[in-house]
Design a protein that fits this description.
alpha+beta; 3 domains; six-stranded mixed β-sheet; 17 helices; 6 strands
């Protein structure tokens, strides 16, 4: 009378009598050799690959799989846990060999066919009825599906581990790039991080919460991390054909401040300038799109030393201190428009949206306040810089109060 199975037996082993196992045991050694030979012959990826440690792992996997199957038929309670680490190791091995799981899945299918042919024949020779033989066939293929699933899990886990290690190394590389590491060190770090080092790269700054959404739409070799409180992106060869349009659209959408493309040993400069532009406030805005360092060089020079720039603005615009707050603002706006229009009052009026006569009155007042400074090229340049600084530094409410005491303020000249 067939032995009843335990409730803890693997699902595929239900319905197989324990008395079947002795009929299968003698087949296992030669069946393992047949499967290994078939894999090496019929699956091109494994031709010549069945030697060394990899071949030993394949052999062990086949032998363990066959033995565990028959042991589960014989002692289902003891075999219920199985040995999944063996088959997960096979999946990890496929990733190390640089293959997808297609070849291993094909090997599992081949092994299942060969096992059914040999073991089914042995069951019939031992006098087991057709019903047991059908159940054996179903069990073999269900068992192989379980092993294949364990290999998929091992492959996926190894892939995630590799990606995590690569990301860690790329973050390390990014850190050294921004520290100005020497070329030889950067080359070694790039190789370890599997990063195709470009001849030039550009650093870009975005808000931290925009970093990941931007990375997902940029080239896979883009380096990214949170640096100095901002999202840092490093784009290799940003002006290469086909890249400017694709990356430009993403950077514009996320309001990036874009540094210039420089050799890798100078990427720290690109990042420092992009970060300064990003922090400037008003020069770049996510709603208006991206801002380029190269389009704001003068502004960035002014923002490089804010206290000094405030002092310059305070000294140059000190003559306005005698005016009321509203008058100071109007006169400063008029002076800036007049200088930008090279002294053309009609053009300045159009820029300001006021009557030309209004501009004439204001210019006369400015001439009273600044005197010959409005005619001297050097003083005019200083005034242009001071007025630009006023906008950058947010000093509109008091153009002439930036860092100089009233008694110490000379005329613009």
């Amino acid at each position: 009378m067939p032995t009843k199975k335990s409730d803890s037996a693997p699902g595929w082993a239900q319905g197989l009598p324990a008395e079947l196992a002795p009929a299968l045991d003698p087949e296992l050694p030669s069946l393992a050799e047949e499967i290994i030979a078939g894999v090496a012959t019929d699956i091109p990826e494994y031709a010549g690959a069945m030697h060394g440690s990899y071949g030993r792992n394949i052999r062990r996997g086949v032998e363990v799989a066959l033995r565990d199957f028959v042991d589960a038929v014989r002692r289902p309670r003891d075999a219920a846990a199985g040995r999944p680490e063996v088959y997960r190791a096979l999946g990890r091995g496929e990733l190390r060999e640089g293959r997808s799981l297609d070849a291993l899945q094909a090997a599992y299918r081949l092994g299942a066919r060969l096992a059914w042919r040999r073991l089914g024949r042995a069951a019939a020779a031992a006098g087991h009825p057709a019903e047991v033989q059908r159940t054996l066939a179903e069990a073999i293929f269900a068992y192989i599906d379980e092993l294949a699933a364990e290999s998929v899990e091992g492959y996926s886990a190894a892939k995630a581990e590799r990606a995590g290690e690569r990301d860690r190394r790329r973050r390390q590389l990014l850190g050294r790039l921004l520290e100005g590491a020497p070329a030889e060190e950067l080359e070694q770090l790039a190789d370890r991080a599997d990063w195709p080092a470009p001849s030039v790269a550009a650093a870009c700054a975005v808000e931290p919460d925009r970093l990941r959404p931007a990375v997902r739409r940029l080239a896979p070799e883009t380096l990214a991390d949170i640096v100095d409180g901002a999202g840092c992106l490093v784009l290799g060869d940003p002006d290469a054909p086909g890249r400017r349009g694709a990356s430009g659209a993403v950077l514009t959408e996320h309001g990036a401040a874009v540094g210039p493309a420089l050799p890798l040993t100078r990427l720290a400069d690109s990042w420092r300038w992009a970060l300064r532009l990003h922090r400037a406030g008003g020069l770049t805005d996510a709603d208006r799109g991206t801002a380029s360092v190269d389009e704001h060089l003068a502004d960035l020079v002014l923002l490089g030393d804010r206290p000094l720039t405030r002092r310059l603005a305070g000294r140059a615009l000190a003559p306005l201190d005698s005016e009321t707050s509203a008058s100071r603002r109007r006169l400063a706006d008029t002076l800036e428009a007049w200088l930008q229009c090279h002294g053309n009052r009609a053009a300045a009026a159009r820029r300001l949206g006021v009557h030309p006569q209004t501009v004439r009155y204001r210019i006369e007042r400015l001439q009273d306040l600044f005197g010959a400074a409005l005619e001297e090229p050097g003083d005019r340049l200083t005034l242009m810089v001071a007025l630009r600084a006023r906008g950058l530094l947010g000093d509109d409410e008091d153009p002439g109060s930036a860092g100089v005491s009233p008694r110490a303020r000379p005329s613009a000249r």
